[in-house]
Amino acid sequence: GQRRDEGSGQAQLHIPSSVSLSPGPPSCTSDTEHCFPFGTDLSRPESMAPPLSSWPWASLGQYKYMLFGPLVWKVVQEWREQGGLPLGSWWLHLLVLFAVRGLIYQFWFTYGNMLFFTRRRRVVADGVDFRQIDAEWDWDNFLILQTLIGATVVNSPLLPGLRQLCLWDPRGWAVALLLHVGFSEPVFYLAHRALHRAPLFARYHAAHHSSGVTQALTAGFGTPLESLLLTLAMGAPLAGAFLLGAGSIGLVYAHAFVFDYLRAMGYSNVEVVSPRVFDAFPPLRYILYTPSYLSLHHLEKRGNFCLFMPALDAAFGTLDERSWPLQRAAYDGAGGGGALGTPEFVFLAHVVDIMSSMHVPFALRSLSSTPFANHFILLPFWPVAFGFMLLMWCCSKTFVVSFYYLRGHLHQTWSVPRYGFQYFLPAAKKGINHQIELAILRADRMGVKVLSLAALNKNEALNGGGTLFVSKHPDLRVRVVHGNTLTAAVILNEIPSNVKEVFLTGATSKLGRAIALYLCRKKIRVLMFTMSSERFVKIQREAPPEFQQYLVQVTKYQAAQNCKTWIVGKWLSPREQRWAPAGTHFHQFVVPPIIGFRRDCTYGKLAAMRLPKDVRGLSSCEYTMERGVVHACHAGGVVHFLEGWDHHEVGAIDVDRIDVVWRAALKHGLAPV
């Protein structure tokens, strides 16, 4: 139901031919040849940036919130004077309004990205990319501007009605409603149409429309001029009510809440109002816009210019009649909407711990779009995350976390609702395997081609690296993959070609076994650290007779004190790391990674690969990985899918396939990090 421009990554809405639609309105962006092309270098003297096109506090970065310092100081002063919280202080209410309004946009962002709720009611199927996230990083600039304008008004004699706070006055509601319909809507409509004409569009509005897929936070992305126009539309009804002596603090909060709620809803890219409501009360179509209505405008830029009320578009002939069929298709998940279809590849992950659970794409975008790290700012949210952990433990099932497109194919990440520590509880083993089994069977029914198991979901002690499920369900059409063949390949290809000896911990694990058998065939001496002679001998006998001599069992770390290549598959304490000679490089496949205590040594990261450059809609980082980088087991599943291999990759790693999988990964554009 949608076309995607592979060059730009932006979606184009496409209504199915079965829906009879009248032609869309003519373009309202005439004379565009006189515009500055978007991206013109405005730093040169001959093309200086026009006024009100950039934010004056842009250079402050995150310190921009220091602009609220005077307001905070005013609140502190009044607190001291009154001996308690100054509930009648406008300065306090302005700060509270800033926080509450920000939470409204955050709420809609969170809801819109909870794919387990909304994936069937999306308007545009494409995902947001990192370019858009970076462009919209300071989306709350308009809230800062409006708060500072509010502080200026409060501190001036323009509105004497502000001096005496009234909690509630019904007259003010009537005045505000009349002014919104009679002033704010027409002014915004006319100003918006003007912004779509040359030269204003290229100078002030093109950046806003550069976002390919709208999200709630996109509503705040714009230039100071756009924000001032929005402030006028929002503030005029309030100013009128206070000038007539009918203003109240309740009106300020309610008006701001409704205004921001509708703005965030329109940009959410998720339909929430049933088309049956519009069928039952047709005039509502001209009173309340929808996310589909706004998405048509945002992508095609040729109609639907209203603030909230499509009646003005209807009156001036700029209403796109396709808005309502698209709204119905999106809400019902029918063709022509943006419902996510059946994925062809699924990466089945699990939550690592309580802190990292806040790194999900539907929480804080500024966190999920960067590699995970523990921040002090997350500590206040820990009790909330702990509560969600208990909730998921009791009554949750596998859910969709994120998605991206690779060469036109939909890839999704699902998560088992279990945390890392639960995998080591004997009583939880059966329940976890049941969750994984249900996810595999669900993927099989949906028509998923490859499902890749992540981290502890393929633990040997848990399910034999996925063997349990393949043996129990021999007729599975979905291919179950642990991806560790590529993990081994990544680690092995990091080892310099001139290395003659390595020290291997976790030597009898699935990965340790494969690495040891591969290296001994290259005539590299492998010091296998293990206390189990039985396991060592079993692995040694798997090697060809002429290479068995290169596998050596060691039981003490002192045996590696002259070896500068350590391959770590088991946690190393600082004392154990001290046995490594200076200049040692630690290759790792242990989770979590060891801490680098030695300054005279180097430490590798977990095995990972960068996805091909033509990936689209990738908007979050995979745990501690950099942008566009995924764990090697994830990449292994992608390669399995792209190659169209028809076998399951479960249980022990086939050493003979390590080079085959590595070459296939490079062939398809995956790159080592």
Automatic annotation (TrEMBL):
The chain crosses the membrane at residues 90-111, 172-191, 238-259, 372-393. Residues 178-318 form the Fatty acid hydroxylase domain. The keyword Transmembrane applies. Keywords: Endoplasmic reticulum, Lyase, Membrane, NADP, Transmembrane, Transmembrane helix. One of its GO terms (biological process) is aldehyde biosynthetic process. Its main location: endoplasmic reticulum. SUPFAM superfamilies: NAD(P)-binding Rossmann-fold domains. It catalyses: a long-chain fatty aldehyde + 2 NADPH + O2 + H(+) = a long-chain alkane + formate + 2 NADP(+) + H2O. One of its GO terms (cellular component) is endoplasmic reticulum membrane. Residues 502-672 form the Very-long-chain aldehyde decarbonylase CER1-like C-terminal domain. One of its GO terms (molecular function) is aldehyde oxygenase (deformylating) activity. Its EC number is 4.1.99.5. Coiled coil: none annotated. Residues 1-30 are annotated as: Disordered. It is a multi-pass membrane protein. It is an enzyme of class 4 (lyase). Pfam families: CER1-like_C, FA_hydroxylase. It is found in: Endoplasmic reticulum membrane. It comes from the Eukaryota. Belongs to the sterol desaturase family. This is aldehyde oxygenase (deformylating). The lineage of its organism: Eukaryota, Viridiplantae, Streptophyta, Embryophyta, Tracheophyta.
